[in-house]
Amino acid sequence: MFPVFVLTLMGVFLSPVLSDWRWGRTVTVIIIGGSAALALERSGAHRGVRHAAVGTVAVVALFIAVVPAVDEYPVLEEIVTALFALLLMVTPVVVIGRLLMRPKITLDTVAASLAGYLQIGLLFASVYSLVSQIETVPFFATGSDLLSTFDFQYFSFITLTTVGYGDLTPATNAGRSLAMLEAVVGQVFLVTIVAVVVGNIGRDLPHRRGTTTPDDGDA
């Protein structure tokens, strides 16, 4: 799972740098979506599911690359955003499943838990963007309609970490509810999954002793 963590981290840090260019947003989608597809591949998911993940990344990247040509079809943008959000739900679920199956916590396990945490932030950023596209009123209280994908990502990670600067605040009940959910999910994941993994690195998990997994030796 370490490559998944590296790709996710690259996507998070490259997004603000590349968000001003269409080709940059396309690259970011490929990196972030690729991390989710790789998580499926490393987890041994069914071939059809892995192919669907790769296809979703390709469709979203292609849409972003040609977005000026489809501006008059907003429903397509909503569908693509929803597909990408659905894909990003994969990694946290896969990560938790893999953690429960491993007999020993390794550095690779730590990387997997951190990748899952980062993917939660990216997932909610996509959901915020989707809600903004669907609703007829501005998502943020500032009232601005000129929002970039990085604005939603920034707001998502500020909410996930409960920093709460206050420069961007949701204006609708849907946005506020999602922000509350993300803050709770993020903190629960951080103080349970990540904390337990980091605190028990190198130790055997009692409930999984005597079992093996394909990549138990990864570090």
Describe, in plain words, how this protein is organized in 3D:
By secondary structure, the protein is mostly helical. The model is unreliable at 209-214 (pLDDT under 50). The protein has a single domain (2-208), classed as Helix Hairpins (Orthogonal Bundle). 69% of the residues lie in helices and 0% in strands. It has helices spanning 2-18, 22-42, 47-65, 74-88, 90-101, 107-134, 149-160, 173-199. The protein contains 8 helices and no strands.
- What's the CATH topology name? Helix Hairpins
Number of DSSP strands? 0
Largest sheet: none
CATH architecture: Orthogonal Bundle
Global mean pLDDT: 81
Q: Rg, please?
A: 18 Å
Report the helical percentage: 55-70%
Shape label: globular
Q: What are the low-pLDDT stretches, counting only 5+ consecutive residues below 50?
A: 209-214
Tally of structural domains: 1
Give the secondary structure arrangement, pairings included.
Elements: H1 2-18, H2 22-42, H3 47-65, H4 74-88, H5 90-101, H6 107-134, H7 149-160, H8 173-199
Helix pairs in contact: 1-2, 1-6, 2-3, 2-5, 3-4, 4-6, 5-6, 6-7, 6-8
